[in-house]
């Protein structure tokens, strides 16, 4: 039985390998006892209040003082940034920073999504964070415990340049820990204006009008609503972009949701978002479960698909691949049940924060102080077109902005916009993409999906150790 | 040398390997048992007892996960045994091109699983994929391989078999080649057909090879993750979620304690299934 002995060794070592899979690098349990209390992030309404000291004029003149602030020896700052963001616009600004201050910027690329989150958290935990950290604003940023790792920027003069609605998304307990990285964007409906004109349709102001449009498009033999659920994150858009309508009927939903007193399944306005998602199923393309984001963009541009609920960064992707078609694409806000409240759900730009224990904190402050000026935004706009209005005061949209972005301006001018839920609450259940696929494809009813999501959120709240859950 | 020092002397040689093994395998394993009972964000931890296990077991997608994992392991294991054995017999016969065919069969094993997954998921696209286009050329309307929740898991399992059958075949070839020629000659003298050769000599005497294939394929199936992740990411919805992909999603969500608890459960589950299977199969083995 010599042979089987050898095999039992092989099987044993196989099992041990399985055991090794369980391991995670756990070298940082030293301060566990000291700080076992997880951060309870209060949605900081006071943030904007404390920072709204009257700014004399947003357009400070950095060039005048720049000469004296120039470093004699070059200083190099490292910027940790995900590899999915186009760095061209940022590079236009960092080149100028190098010219003015002799501060070089080294781009340190990391993966995006969940893997990127883990890398950032590991870098923070091991004290190896780069000088500057480019990261999502909102709930993800707050989950990094910014008060522990990043420089408090509340009293920096350049904060006066930043639009107030951005500040709460990067604030903890009323203190601000990051500046914006560029333009905002919206979660909205991209539509093919050419086909709209051909079929004689107009932009819908209510959900019923939207459905009426869908019927007409369907009758014309085209896909009314593009579904790309193979990339499951895209299935969340109808739900997430409905936040303006949710807060219009249930103004305190975000806070109550964070506190655990309001649920999707029991709040009619929020449950409505799941219902809207399910109601779109008859209008989707046939192979929506196998269609990817890239294929969806192609359908939209070709006009075989006419409407696509998506974030407006898709405009940049469309411009990169189909530059001659970009003017066909328009944007409208996801309509609510009444025409009286029709508004846009806005996503804030990523945040750039300064690592507190970095070697070049002063240089990093200078870097960010210049980055968050209208002048810098203009440099950026010359290289990379914005996907929505800037959140820097006085930074105007360039003349050649995408038509879709210009479509967004009325919602800002009339103040009919609201930040997406993920910027108001630290809670966003990690299984939402799968749950919205189930809801959107009819595998589960809207009620069951809402319940499943409430459970997912509850799990996250418990894992975050939030109070009251 | 005294008896005691001689014993120490021999252990000293084991020490370097032992230390490496302890630090990189045993210690993390033991630590994972501890961290599975904490709320853990890689920096701070808080002891919460068995809450993570309770949460993990109350996960709604977990039932699907357990069922899918078992289906996946059984289907891939069975198909690999069947096809591996048939290919092994074919490729040890007197085919002229057998060494070429052996490399062809083994080739998929060398490919990166992720690359295979991405390639197949584009080939399995319902309207633009190579498979359904070929099918429609001969008048068959192919299904939505990865979008139909009823067959998505089986589609992934088939790709796993395509990729893994080469390894099974090689093990079977080795097993078949080690059968002495005399047995076949004896059967020939007794007037046996080629089917009885296969039935009464090849199958019983390749039992050790078959056991290796079953164990490897079954454990591989239970732990499988990369192919499913590359092809469907557990979707549509949760319909192709395996235990491992559920754990990974929890890890992605930043629930490190919870994910670790899931891994401990997977570890125990795999051990509970694999050891009895291994014992049972070993008993069946026939000595040459």
TrEMBL record, chain A:
Keywords: Signal, Transport. Residues 445-456 have a biased composition (Basic and acidic residues). Residues 1-24 form the signal peptide. Coiled coil: none annotated. It holds the Pfam family SBP_bac_1. The keyword Acetylation does not apply. Residues 30-69, 437-456 are annotated as: Disordered. It comes from the Bacteria. Residues 30-66 have a biased composition (Low complexity). PROSITE patterns: PROKAR_LIPOPROTEIN. SUPFAM superfamilies: Periplasmic binding protein-like II. Belongs to the bacterial solute-binding protein 1 family. This is Extracellular solute-binding protein. It comes from Cohnella ginsengisoli.
UniProtKB/TrEMBL annotation, chain B:
SUPFAM superfamilies: MetI-like. One of its GO terms (biological process) is transmembrane transport. Residues 66-277 form the ABC transmembrane type-1 domain. PROSITE patterns: ABC_TM1 (PS50928). One of its GO terms (cellular component) is plasma membrane. InterPro entries: ABC_transporter_permease, MetI-like, MetI-like_sf. The keyword Protease does not apply. CDD domains: TM_PBP2. Keywords: Cell membrane, Membrane, Transmembrane, Transmembrane helix, Transport. The chain crosses the membrane at residues 12-35, 70-92, 104-124, 161-179, 200-222, 255-278. Belongs to the binding-protein-dependent transport system permease family. It is found in: Cell membrane. This is Sugar ABC transporter permease. It comes from the Bacteria. The keyword Cell membrane applies. It is a multi-pass membrane protein.
């Amino acid at each position: 039985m010599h042979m089987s002995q050898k095999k039992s060794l092989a099987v044993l070592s196989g099992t041990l390998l399985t055991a090794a899979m369980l391991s995670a690098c756990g070298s940082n349990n030293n301060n566990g006892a000291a700080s076992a209390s997880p951060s309870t992030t209060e949605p900081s309404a006071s943030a904007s209040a404390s920072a709204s000291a009257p700014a004399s004029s947003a357009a400070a003149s950095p060039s005048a003082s720049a000469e004296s602030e120039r470093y004699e020896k070059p200083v190099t700052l490292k910027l940790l940034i995900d590899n999915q963001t186009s760095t061209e616009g940022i590079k236009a600004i960092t080149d100028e920073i190098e010219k003015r201050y002799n501060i070089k910027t080294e781009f340190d690329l990391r993966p995006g999504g969940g893997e990127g989150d883990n890398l950032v958290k590991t870098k923070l935990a091991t004290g190896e964070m780069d000088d500057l950290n480019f990261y999502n604003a909102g709930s993800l940023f707050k989950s990094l415990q910014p008060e522990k790792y990043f420089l408090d920027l509340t009293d920096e003069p350049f904060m006066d340049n930043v639009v107030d609605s951005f500040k709460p998304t990067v604030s903890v307990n009323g203190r601000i820990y990051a500046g914006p990285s560029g333009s905002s964007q919206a979660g909205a409906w991209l539509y093919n204006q050419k086909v709209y004109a051909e079929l004689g349709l107009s932009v819908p102001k209510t959900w019923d009008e939207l459905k009426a449009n869908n019927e007409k498009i369907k009758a014309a033999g085209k896909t009314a609503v593009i579904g790309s659920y193979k990339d499951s994150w895209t299935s969340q858009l109808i739900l997430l972009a409905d936040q303006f309508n949710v807060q219009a009927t249930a103004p305190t939903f975000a806070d109550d949701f964070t506190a655990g007193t309001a649920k999707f399944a029991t709040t009619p306005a929020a449950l409505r978002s799941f219902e809207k998602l399910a109601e779109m199923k008859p209008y989707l393309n046939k192979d929506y479960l196998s269609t990817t984001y890239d294929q969806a963009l192609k359908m939209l541009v070709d006009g075989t698909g006419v409407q696509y609920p998506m974030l407006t960064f898709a405009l940049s992707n469309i411009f990169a691949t189909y530059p001659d078609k970009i003017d066909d694409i328009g944007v409208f806000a996801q309509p609510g049940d009444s025409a009286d409240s029709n508004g846009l759900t806005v996503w804030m730009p990523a945040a750039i924060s300064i690592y507190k224990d970095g070697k070049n904190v002063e240089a990093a402050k200078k870097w960010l102080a210049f980055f968050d000026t209208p002048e810098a935004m203009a440099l950026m706009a010359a290289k990379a077109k914005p996907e929505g209005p800037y959140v820097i005061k006085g930074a105007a949209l360039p003349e050649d902005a995408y038509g879709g972005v210009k479509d967004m301006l009325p919602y800002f001018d009339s103040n009919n916009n609201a930040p997406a839920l993920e910027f108001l609450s630290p809670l966003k259940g990690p299984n939402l993409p799968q749950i919205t696929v189930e809801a959107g494809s009819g595998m589960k009813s809207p009620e069951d999906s809402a319940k499943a999501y409430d459970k997912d959120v509850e799990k996250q709240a418990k894992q975050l150790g939030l109070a009251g859950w | 040398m005294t008896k005691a020092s001689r014993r120490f002397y021999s252990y000293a040689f084991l020490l370097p390997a032992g230390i490496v093994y302890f630090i990189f395998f045993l210690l993390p394993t033991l630590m994972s048992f501890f961290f599975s009972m904490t709320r853990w964000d890689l920096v701070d931890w808080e002891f919460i007892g068995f809450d993570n296990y309770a949460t993990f077991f109350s996960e709604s997608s977990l039932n699907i996960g357990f069922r899918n994992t078992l289906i996946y392991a059984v289907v891939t294991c069975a198909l690999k045994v069947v096809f591996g054995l048939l290919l092994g017999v074919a490729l040890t016969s007197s085919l002229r091109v057998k060494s070429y065919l052996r490399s062809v069969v083994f080739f998929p094993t060398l490919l990166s699983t992720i690359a295979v997954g991405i390639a197949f998921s584009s080939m399995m696209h319902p309207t633009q994929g190579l498979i359904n286009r070929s099918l429609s050329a001969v008048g068959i309307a192919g299904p939505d391989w990865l979008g139909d929740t009823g067959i998505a898991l089986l589609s992934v399992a088939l790709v796993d078999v395509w990729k893994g059958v080469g390894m099974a075949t090689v093990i079977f070839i080795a097993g078949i080649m080690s059968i002495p020629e005399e047995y076949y000659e004896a059967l020939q003298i007794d007037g046996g057909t080629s089917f009885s050769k296969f039935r009464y000599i090849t199958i019983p005497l390749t039992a050790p090879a078959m056991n290796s294939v079953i164990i490897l394929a079954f454990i591989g199936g239970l732990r499988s993750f990369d192919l499913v992740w590359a092809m469907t990411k557990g979707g549509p919805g949760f319909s192709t979620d395996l235990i491992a992909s559920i754990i990974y999603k929890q890890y992605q969500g930043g629930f490190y304690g919870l994910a670790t608890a899931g891994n401990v459960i997977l570890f125990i589950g795999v051990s509970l299934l694999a050891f009895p299977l291994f014992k049972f199969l070993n008993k069946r083995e026939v000595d040459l």
